[in-house]
Structure formats: C-alpha cells, structure tokens
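Changelog-adjacent note: as of this version, every example in the card shows the full chain rather than a window. The one below runs 155 residues end to end.
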Amino acid sequence: MEDTLLNLNEGSFPISIKKLFSNLDNLDNLGTIKKGIKTDLKIEKFSNNLLLAKGKISVTLESECQRCSELFDVNLQIKSQVGIKDITEENLDSKGPYEIHYQDLNCFSIEKLIAEEIHLNFPSRAICCELDNNDKEKENNQKVKPFKKIRDLFK
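Full-length structure tokens:
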C-alpha cells in the first residue's frame, strides 16, 4: 500500500484528514478489515515542536476468538488525541500529558499513525464467548471454599 506522506514542518494548520482506507500494512495479525478504516482527524500545531492529532478512527476487524477459535467482529471506535513530534526528539523527551507518536515530520505517514492507534486500542484479549458451565463451576468451587483443607482436618 502506498503511504500518504505530508510535510508537517511546512504548510498551514489545522490539517483535516477525512479518508476511508481499505487496508493498512501491519494490521494482518489483528484480523481481516471489514468495510475499511474510516478516519476523521485534524492535526493542529500546539507549540513549536509539538503537533496534536485529534479525531475519530472507526474500524471493524474480523478476528479469531482466543477461547473458542470462532471468527467474530471487533468494532473499534477510537477517539484519538495524540501528540506528534519529530523522531529526533524521541530520546530527549520526558513524560508529558499526551501520548506521543514519533515520526519524521518532513515525510509524515498518516497510515503509520492510524495503524499505531488501532494497535494500541485493540483489546489484549479478543474473546466472543463466555466460559462454559463446567469451567464456571470449577472456578466457583475454588473461590467459595478457600479453607476446605482446614475444615477437613477438623472433621
């Protein structure tokens, strides 16, 4: 896929990005993209060395359940508010109020920013089903009777 590159060191702000991406690199391990990735982002200049990307990213991924291995839809509605800085400042920065995305501002890739936001907001455990009843009973028995061995000694 060809990247949409912007030079964020030049130009007028805010930059509005409303685009539907059919696919992005590096998202294959999350699942199959359905209906594309809808983006509505605005990049504003916050200070001399900090830009701010705000907006929404919507995507539905068909993913495999980690418990039952069935395919199901993971719907992500991401409200993004991320700082953008040049890659040269990555090792110089201290923790600030925003999550920071580092990239070369002379050839900034919108696709990399969106893919990173999707990865960060994808659930760590993709599960579509509940525990089956046998697992629930075993779990409940262990939780209900924590002193069972001590009680058995008194009998």
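Structural remarks: The chain has a mean pLDDT of 83.
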